Amino acid sequence: MAHIRVQKDPFDVAQELAALQKKGADMGALVSFTGLVREFDDDRRITKLTLEHYPAMTKRQLHAIAAEAEARFSLVHCRVIHRFGPLHPGDPIVLVITAARHRKAAFEGAEFLMDWLKTKAPFWKKEESSNGSQWVAAQESDDLAAQKWTAPTVKPNGQ
Amino acid sequence: MITCLYFAWVRERIGCDEESLSPPSEVGNLHQFLDWLSRKSAAHAHALSDPTILRFAINQDYATMDSPIKKGDEVAIFPPVTGG
C-alpha cells in the first residue's frame, strides 16, 4: 500500500527510508530520489520557489498512480512526499522511495513515479530570481521522458 | 451550478481562484464551456485566449475539449504542470 503525503513541512529522508524498511523483510532493493530547489537556472539566481497545487486532484491522482506503479513494477511498497508553499535553494521538494524484491523494479518504479509527477501532478512553481518573478514553464523533455512509459515496447529484432 | 477553479497564472489573470457559474443549458462540453466563459470578462478572455497552452480537469481528472460537463461538476483550468 502506497504512502502518500503532500505537506508544507520539510521531510527527513533517513527517517522515511527507515520507516519503509520496517514494513517487512520481503524486499531486496530500496531506491530513493530526492528533488531539491536549484540555486541557479541558466543564468538566473533563484531566491525563492513557491509551489501551488490543487489538493483534491493531487490526492486523487497520486493514489491512482502509486497503485499503478506498485502493480506494474511489483513494488512491495512505495512512498511519495511532495511539498508545497514557499521553498528556497537547497530545500527538498519531493521524495520518492520504492521498495522491491530486486533493484531493476525499484529503479524503474522510482523513475516512472518521478516522470509522472513532473508531467501530470497538479503542481505549479513560481520562481523569484535575479530576473524578477515568473511562473516556471513546463519542459518538453519531461513530456518525452513520461511518454516512454506509454510507448509500444520495441520488438526483439529492433523493428 | 458549476464550480470553476483556476491555478497559477490563470488564477492571476482572472483575478480569483474559484467561481460558481451557471452556464446556459446548451453548454454541454468543455469546448462550449470555455467559449461561454471567455465572454464573461476581458480578464477571462485574456486568460483563456489560447486553450492549447492550458490544461483542464473535470472532477479532478484530466479532461479534453469534448469531455461532457454537467451541473455540479468541478472544472479546473490551469497551465501545464511543473511539479516534482
From TrEMBL, chain B:
One Pfam family it belongs to: ThiS
Entry keyword Nucleotide-binding: yes
Domain of life: Bacteria
Keyword entries, A-Z: Nucleotide-binding
SUPFAM superfamilies named among the record's database cross-references: MoaD/ThiS
InterPro entries reported for this sequence: Beta-grasp_dom_sf (IPR012675), MOCS2A (IPR044672), Mopterin_synth/thiamin_S_b (IPR016155), ThiS/MoaD-like (IPR003749)
Cited CDD domains: Ubl_MoaD (cd00754)
PANTHER family noted in UniProt: MOLYBDOPTERIN SYNTHASE SULFUR CARRIER SUBUNIT
Assigned protein family: Belongs to the MoaD family.
Name by which UniProt lists this protein: Molybdopterin synthase sulfur carrier subunit
Organism: Iodidimonas muriae
Gene name of this polypeptide: moaD
